[in-house]
Write the structure tokens for this entry.
Amino acid sequence: MRRVIGFLLLAVILVGLAYGLGAIPGDITATVGTYTFQASLPIVTIALILLFLILYFLVRLAALLLSAPGRFGRGRHQRQQRQGEFAVTRAFAALAAADPKAARREAARARRLLPDAPMALLVSAESARLAGKPEESEADYRRLAEIPDAAFLGLRGLLRQALDAGDWTLAADLARRAELAHPGAVWLRSERARLALRTGAWAEALALSGPEAPRAVMATAAAEASEDPMQAMRLAKDAYNADPTLTPAVLAYANRLRAARDPRRAEQIVERAWARAPHPDLARFYLEPETEPLARVKRAEKLAGFAPGHGESAFMEAQACLAAKLTGEARRHAQAAVAAGLDQRRVWVLIADIEEADAAAGGGEAATFAAHEALRRSHSAGPDPRWRCTACGAEHESWHPACPVCGTVGQVVWTAETAPAQRAVMPAALLSSTATP
Ligand SMILES: [Zn+2]
């Protein structure tokens, strides 16, 4: 509407102008050499306007002809771009339909039409992967990883391949780089934590894991692996604070304190742990500095005082007394251990040793008979407690942060149970050492 009004206005002005010019009297005369032109003013005005219009259209035409090849190229490029995008879309559709042949065909077309486009590289890599050509897809992912804006896509592809190949060290490195390229991806963080556990990078696993992870177990393992005494001390303390009933955590911390020349604090930690959950390893650590048998008995008595009446306390005292040749005391403690519920093979074997020591010291027939009787009892007694994985049931000589058989973290517990426990994964509950039968 506005255009129509404008056009009408222009027309009115032009008509008015023409009318005004026509009304002006007079001629224009021009002399060039021997030629003389003479015309009325309206005619000259109209001729000038016509000349201007002709010149204008000539210039436009020349410009159009000069720009023609560029415009043609641009049109071709746009067409190519559109076709390339269609090829990428079709490749994605084929990938979604798990059709490797079609995906490879469309990806090749996309690469030809859009040689520098990250999307074309991505579909090319993915289709090669789907077609079972890991070398080809790896090459594409590598090129993708070099493009700043698409690096994450390339690294993610390489990470997936490393995981498929079981190359945990490479996968951990790629995951680290991928997180740098695109910080904050939650799945990547948990993947990194999983890889850190797999590769035994405990400090890293600890830093990456959430509160649901068995932190005491990981901190203990990290403390044991650390070569920096200060860091090891901090990790061991964290482990102990996270679960003061986890014997390996207690011992990691106590060992660090002892190494740092703070034996009293180390002993206090072990005394407290003994009160919570007595464990033979705690007794070993506590008695270690003492080599004289009678002094060891005194020390055992002191530690037992923190869990009086506990079978483990009585067993430890019985062992110390036998080593000091106090067979009467040893027998009394061993019987107390059985009475406290420790009807285990190791206790009956110890009783047999006590009776044999007595027999050797001139205890006579009765002592020999008692030794045989104790050995007979040891065969029908309950099993000794040991480290066992509650996930797969495998038994281990020593504690492991991750089960060497099934790889589960935080499931190797101290137990005297026989049947494999089918418990749900509850790290905090499972981490506590159970030395009682
Ligand atoms: Zn296991």
User: Anything to note?
Assistant: The beta strands are 27-32, 35-40, 386-389, 395-396, 412-415. The chain has two domains: 1-146, 212-384. Residues 421-437 have pLDDT under 50 and may be disordered.
